[in-house]
Amino acid sequence: MKELYIKHIAAQLQVKTWQVENCATMLEDGDTIPFISRYRKEKTGGMDDATVAEVKHWVDVFDEMETRKATILKVIDEAGALTDELRSKIEGTVSSTELEDLYLPWKPKRRTRATVAKSLGLEPLADALMSARISNPEAAAKPFVKEGVPTVEDALAGARDIIAERVSECIPVRENQRASFRQRRIIAKATKAASDDPEAAKYRSYFNWSMPIARVPAHNLLAVLRAADQGFLSIDLDTDSEKCSAKVFYDYCKAAGFPSAGCKAQVQEAVSDSFDRLLQPSISGEVIREAKAKADVESIAVFGDNLRQLLLGAPVGQKVTLALDPGFRNGCKLAVLSERGDLLCHTIIYPHPPQNEKVKALTTVQDLVDRYHVQAIAVGNGTASRESVEFLKMIDLPSDCRIWTVSEDGASIYSASEAAREEFPNEDVTVRGAVSIGRRLQDPLSELVKIDPKNLGIGQYQHDVDQALLREKLDNTVEACVNAVGVNLNTASPWLLRYVAGIGPSLARAIVDYRSERGGFRSRAELLKVPRLGPKAYQQCAGFLRVKGAANPLDDSAVHPESYFVVDHMAADLGVSVKELVGNAELCSKIDPTRYVGGEVGLPTVNDILRELAKPGLDPREAASEFSFADDVRSISDLKPGMELPGIVTNITAFGAFVDIGLHENGLIHSSQMRRKVHLHEQVRVTVLDVDLERGRIALRLI
Same domain for 40 and 141? Predict the structure, then answer.
């Protein structure tokens, strides 16, 4: 990668150039983000996965820019206009906006007023009007009157069109106008469609709205742009045409050489036309798109943070689980899952209105609990959730069996997905949905990776932001979470395995097929026998895969196989076996890490090895904890300002957090009412500030 790009990335991320250079080189060599951040800390200076992902993003951006530069240079060269100075400017820029400005005069155009004027031979007249030698523009225009240019005024109009286009392509002018427009207010006004369509009501706070575009919060800007796309709002920047065109005139004349006094009026008219017809629409659009790009980045970051918290949610672990997908008229779907998530049985009960078969339902659930020795119960948080939890409390449960409420977001998407059809080809969608709810309790990460993150009920304006950037962020987040936790090689689904560093969908399927044929893996090294899984893929994935009960205990740890020799050396120095050393924190504390630094092994790697040896395979996720809603709150009408309630954070946005307090409607803790940062699915206590019964809105404050 070119040095100018490396320096720019380093400045953007506030890291050293050598860190970026090493990271970029490893990425170009095919190393993955998790592998680089976990096992190459010496080369990156300890960059975490998010920073390595940022480097990768910029590497991809500048790779595309290099391709674009090559195209631009070719076009300008073929036009015979490529000078050494222009080539240097193009090759030396790191800004796509600057690059496109440099290209603008030679960029192929559709038929414009200026191109028509040029085809009529009026370009010399435009040059003359900008010179300091012409005192009478009408006299200068007379020689250009001919077929197609019937009058002097037609000749001057064509020359002004050419000047107008030149003004709009002048780099100093465009830069100055951008700087000016970025300080302007964005204005939104309701359209006629807004008064005719009830769907527009949700945007009514923007019907006569303005704010400096540099200060518009991301969620406000995205809402305004969505309303504009739907035809409910018209938007613009409050540019002062007269003042701006005067400034453009000065800037352009300064760049091009002042015209004579006699030609000043002609050039001023051309500049005014250029601003109104070309510059204002172009620069306004650019500045709004620029603001949206920033809003996209902010919103996508929020989405990524929420997804990380959701995927790293607390698991209850390997317990026989009874999953209940609640409902009234259509009943409650039950599914019993083994410790490993296998479906043992399923049925439907009708404990709620209109059927009210409570006794029969109690008998059915009690039988399932007793017969399968159920250790945990998962209840979906949809319709009839609270009623179902209360019903289950009537069951004689084992002392260690707990009832948990689980988010249903995306369960219906999973139940109709390819993954669900492959796992349960003979079951209908209702059974698959119940299974998904139960598995989310056992291990949220393993189950949620099967669902597109955009269907998990988190984030803000996810359909309005840059979809390619969103997909990149979400894929990186899922990959980071999966590799941070580690994956059991002998039990992981192909949908989980595909997110392990270096594997992907095809190798994930090959691993599962190999495992099915041979009854499981006995070591990490056996991965090399999987068809098409070569040394490079093995290097990337091995450290993140766990083999329970392997002959070498390091195969069930985060120690990479390339570092096994270091552990062998440590154990030999202590006079113990590797098996005796793994998991023995006291022995690990006696090891001097500096003794094992050398060659490709640096101090960060040795310290990571020691931490892993002390607590091998430690799950970074917290343990699950119980929760219950307030018993005396059944509907929004039960709420009164000042009430204190327990709740669960269901979504986090830039403007606050939504909290489930056990009602159909979630409450909102506005950012101004949050004394600290909260996390997705965190159990919180809140105070009710205000209740809007008409709109079903609940305002809360975090206690």
Answer: no
The β-bridge relationship of strands 321-325 and 332-337 is antiparallel
For residue 404, what is the domain's CATH number? Answer: 3.30.420.140
pTM of the model: 0.88
Determine the structural domain holding residue 376 and report its residue range. Answer: 321-442
Q: Has residue 467 been placed in a domain?
A: no
Strand partners, 379: 324, 405
Domain total in the chain? 5
Q: Domain holding 510: CATH number? A: 1.10.150.310
Residues 81 and 124 in one domain: no
Report the distance separating Cα 561 and Cα 37, nearest Å.
Answer: 16
Task: Report how far residue 311's alpha carbon sits from residue 308's, in angstroms, rounded to the nearest whole number.
Answer: 5
Per-residue DSSP letter, 559: -
Q: What confidence tens digit (pLDDT) does each residue in 438-448 have?
A: 999 999 999 99
Buried b (16+ CB within 10 A) or exposed e, 366-394: eebbeebebbbbbbbbbbbbbbbbebbee
Q: Find out whether 378 and 323 touch, Cβ atoms under 8 Å.
A: yes
Tell me the CA distances in angstroms from 300 to 458, 461, 462, 474, 653, one per residue in order: 11, 9, 8, 8, 10
- 152 and 292 assigned to the same domain: yes
Closest to 650 measured CA to CA, from 381, 461, 453, 377 = 381
Whether 649 is covered by a domain: the verdict is yes
Strands 683-692 and 321-325: unpaired
Helix (H, G, I), strand (E, B) or coil at 500: coil
Same domain? For 92 and 193 the reply is: no
The whole-number pLDDT of residue 247 equals: 82
For residue 530, the 8-state DSSP code is: S
DSSP string, 377-414: EEEESSTTHHHHHHHHTTS---TT-EEEEE--TTHHHH
The letter for the amino acid at 214 is A
Same domain, 167 and 44: no
Tokens for 389, please give them: 């939890």
- Give the C-alpha separation, 103 to 89, whole Å: 11
pLDDT tens, position by position, 576-625: 999 999 999 999 999 999 999 998 899 999 999 999 999 998 888 887 77
Q: Which two tokens stand for residue 497?
A: 């395995």
Helix (H) or strand (E) holding 289: helix 280-311
- Please state at what angle helix 49-78 crosses helix 467-485, rounded to 10 degrees: 150
- H or E element, residue 76: helix 49-78
